[in-house]
Amino acid sequence: MDHAHHDHNRINDIQAAVAGNGTIPHAEKGSDHEKYHLKHKGHEQMHAEMFLILMLTLAVSHVGLVFWKKFHFRSYQTASLIGLLIVPVYICATHDWWRFVVIWFIFCVVTAAVMRKGVRRPIAVNTPRMVYKYFYGVHLISGFLSVSGYCMLLFGIFGLNFLFLLDQKTWFDIGLHLLFYGFYYGVIGRDLADIATDRMAVIVGYYSSDGVPAKQLDPRTCALCGNALLVAEGEKGVAEDTYRISCGHFFHEFCLRGWCIVGKKCVCPYCKERFNMKTVYQNPWDRPHVLLGQYLDVLRYLVAWQPLILYADQIVYNLLGLE
Q1: Residues 166-195 pLDDT 10s
Q2: 212 — alpha (psi -120 to 50), left (phi > 0) or beta?
Q3: What would you measure as the largest C-alpha separation in the chain, in angstroms?
Q4: Which 8-state DSSP code applies to residue 236?
Q5: Which residues contact 230 (CB under 8 A, 6 or more apart)?
Q6: pLDDT greater than 50 at residue 281
Q7: Closest CA relative to residue 142, chosen from 153, 154, 150
Q8: Do 28 and 100 belong together in one domain?
Q9: Are residues 131 and 160 in the same domain?
Q10: Is the Cβ–Cβ distance between 293 and 264 less than 8 Å?
């Protein structure tokens, strides 16, 4: 009986401490689960309202983004790109996560320099291939980081981190960082490559928005960069091979990879004929890169728009007095 009375008094003391200043004295602290329920006791209806508001906001915003992308793709792409550039770095800066801010700044400076060379007139002979190689390299690195981070998380779940002499917390931290960096720079690299490849191909003259090329194409030159092909189709090249798509036009390997996999183009830049990328990339190693690109397009919603939606929800909660 005394034991039950003592427990009842202990709970009353904890409730009084929570109601008074939101904290629990060290001597009276129980389990985290107990403290959580004591602090939020009686708030079930408010939590249900907050959950319904969150679900409604997510559904409405998702439908709105889908229609925006369908009917006004360019403005959607621009807004998404601005969100990708600003939202994550703002969140990291406000939380003093300076490592991401420094890496983001270096990436932006290097990428801006590459894009500036690609859109400046007159364009140098080797610039198009350099730009395509750069963005394809970003795509490969981001894919490597994503896969490495994912594998590290799997290893940590099965307790295999001890093989690398790292505790589980450090192992999971590294894995999550690699996964985030890979996804983030993969998404933003694809969006920037989409812009750069369009403008650069227009400057070269073999591509235009109305589908009428500004120059005639020599069959011995790449239909993207305008430089001479290094090897004939089917011949093994030292640095890169030559590819031909269904319309019969030829490309440097890295130019076509940059145009298709990274730049998200599946039409010939010269004649506008649509082609199937699976017929071009028959190497099993290439298919995961195409699949990764499709996943990155989906993740753009989570990286650019999800934080903004959650911030909007928080504003609604404050206006309605929900805490």
Answers
A1: 888 899 999 999 988 988 898 888 888 877
A2: beta
A3: 97
A4: P
A5: 237, 238, 239, 240, 242, 252
A6: yes
A7: 150
A8: no
A9: yes
A10: yes
